[in-house]
């Protein structure tokens, strides 16, 4: 690992160029990432959670707490934040992305602070670079995604736990718990993490008073979440998910076979999109410790606690249900695991080993943006920057249909290309594509971004349909098919 040296956290700050230069580079890189995305439409879950929710609160002037039942199920905080931003600065894609910018930069700040708690300045800067290079985190920052806020609030809260600053922690937990259902789970993960770290304290500090303080820190967020769920149940008659909705089937019990499949899927998510190289770096670092009979450095077990508690809690929640498990669900786990690897690596005395291992992990992680799967394999397109050409290709396809005077409503397509343009692009165009039906459609707009085409439908398009026009950029392709 470049310039990482074996010395305690309390050692004098390094004057190496990395400690002075990399933080500024990271802030600039994340700001540029968001700014370059300001014309991209809403994508994947942000179509619902940012645009549909935001548009509801914007159009109703916050006169009601509850959104329509067909889109209900989520706390109102993120949608209200978007609507308030639009009220102040104007409703546009540019404003929407810029509303994410402070939290993207906040993630950089919190990652740097967290790394400096466990490492000296120079290795902390290199560790932060590895954490912030995660493909899924980068991809989420290009979208108007609530997961950017979730990661920021989680890291902010974690830093406050480590700093023992309970007042600020109370407020951050409230925002995290009311952000989204996974935000609520994340807040509970922080409670378990806080309790776990409590046992690493000296025995004389583990008093009933301190445990009571720990419990009371989380009580306001917990009570507000319970209050919101009661209000939601009284208004709609259900919580969590609408059993009568078309996506309610995705939240049913998975059964034993489904749980085994989910476990395999979670394992795949951990190593997907370049994180396989982090896992390999972790493995060879552990092997080095065991072969050289090195003692693990003092903060290893605390860091291990930070990683394992959210991982197992999220997994226990996701395993029993049929709901697809996205890469972004484990973002905080990805970051904390990378920090643990960097911490262990920093305390290895062999400088060449550190450099080679780090030099293997960072470029390998970045290759995740280029991992290609066959069209028949569903890919987490919202989890890498590979999806970014989609927006321009979509604009070109719509322009072609307009040129040929083909109404969008006559062209079959699939999620996330079904919402009205007024929702995805925040304009006044209420046109939209229709849900695909290859038995009746005459035209179908397909993209490998869409995971909803079955193997049979993909085969049907190849044999029973002809290409009218195709577009391709990077890994993304878009094809307009016409029935033969």
UniProtKB/TrEMBL annotation:
Record keywords, A-Z: Membrane, Transmembrane, Transmembrane helix
Organism: Adhaeribacter terrigena
Superkingdom as given in the UniProt entry: Bacteria
Protein name (database record): Glycosyltransferase RgtA/B/C/D-like domain-containing protein
Residues annotated as transmembrane: 25-44, 94-112, 124-156, 168-192, 213-231, 273-291, 303-321, 327-346
């Amino acid at each position: 690992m470049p310039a990482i040296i074996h010395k305690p956290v309390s050692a004098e700050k390094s004057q190496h160029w990395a400690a002075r230069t990399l933080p500024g580079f990271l802030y600039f890189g994340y700001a540029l990432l968001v700014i370059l995305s300001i014309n991209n439409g809403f994508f994947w879950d942000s179509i619902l959670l940012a645009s549909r929710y935001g548009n509801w609160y914007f159009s109703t002037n916050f006169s009601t707490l509850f959104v329509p039942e067909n889109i209900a199920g989520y706390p109102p905080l993120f949608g209200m934040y978007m609507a308030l931003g639009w009220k102040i600065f104007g409703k546009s894609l540019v404003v929407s992305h810029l509303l994410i910018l402070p939290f993207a930069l906040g993630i950089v700040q919190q990652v740097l602070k967290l790394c400096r708690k466990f490492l000296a300045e120079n290795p902390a800067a290199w560790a932060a670079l590895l954490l912030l290079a995660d493909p899924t985190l980068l991809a989420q920052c290009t979208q108007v995604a609530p997961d950017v806020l979730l990661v920021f609030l989680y890291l902010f809260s974690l830093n406050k736990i480590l700093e023992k600053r309970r007042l600020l922690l109370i407020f951050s937990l409230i925002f995290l718990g009311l952000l989204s259902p996974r935000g609520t789970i994340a807040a509970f993960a922080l409670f378990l993490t806080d309790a776990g770290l409590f046992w690493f304290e000296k025995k004389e500090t583990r008093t009933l008073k301190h445990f009571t303080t720990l419990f009371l820190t989380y009580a306001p967020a917990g009570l507000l979440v319970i209050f919101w769920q009661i209000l939601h149940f009284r208004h709609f008659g259900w919580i969590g998910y609408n059993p009568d909705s078309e996506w309610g089937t995705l939240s049913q019990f998975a059964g034993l076979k489904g749980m085994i499949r989910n476990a395999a899927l979670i394992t795949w998510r951990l190593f997907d999109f370049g994180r396989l190289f982090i896992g390999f770096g972790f493995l060879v670092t552990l092997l080095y410790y065991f072969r050289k009979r090195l003692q693990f450095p003092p903060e290893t077990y605390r860091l291990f606690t930070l990683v394992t508690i959210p991982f197992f809690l999220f997994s226990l929640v996701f395993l029993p249900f049929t709901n697809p498990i996205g890469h972004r669900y484990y973002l905080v786990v990805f970051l904390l695991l990378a920090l643990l690897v960097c911490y262990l690596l920093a305390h290895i005395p062999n400088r060449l080993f550190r450099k080679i291992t780090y030099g293997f992990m960072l470029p390998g992680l970045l290759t995740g943006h280029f991992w290609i799967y066959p069209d028949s394999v569903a890919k987490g397109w919202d989890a890498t920057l590979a999806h970014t050409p989609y927006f321009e290709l979509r604009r070109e396809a719509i322009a072609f249909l307009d040129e040929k005077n083909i109404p969008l409503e006559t062209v079959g397509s699939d999620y996330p290309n079904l919402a009205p343009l007024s929702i995805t692009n925040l304009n006044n165009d209420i046109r939209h594509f229709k849900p695909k039906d290859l038995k009746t459609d005459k035209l179908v707009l397909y993209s490998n971004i869409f995971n909803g085409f079955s193997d049979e439908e993909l085969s049907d398009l190849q044999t029973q349909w002809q290409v009218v026009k195709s577009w391709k950029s990077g890994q993304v392709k878009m094809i307009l098919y016409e029935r033969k």
